[in-house]
Write a structure and sequence with these properties.
The chain is about 30% helix and about 15% strand. The chain is an alpha+beta fold.
């Protein structure tokens, strides 16, 4: 059962940002409720 929440978060983020699940990486917080993800792209912020 470990990792199910992380997998669900990756699926949700991929759908929200319109990227594939393989582009979403968990960088920090695998066992914490505070997590840092990377979407694997170059983004411009306005």
């Amino acid at each position: 059962m470990e990792g199910r929440a992380n997998a669900a978060a990756i699926k949700l983020l991929a759908k929200y940002f319109g990227v594939s699940k393989s582009q979403v990486r968990l960088l920090r917080g695998a066992t914490s409720k505070y997590k840092v993800f990377d979407m694997g792209g170059d983004y411009e912020y306005e």
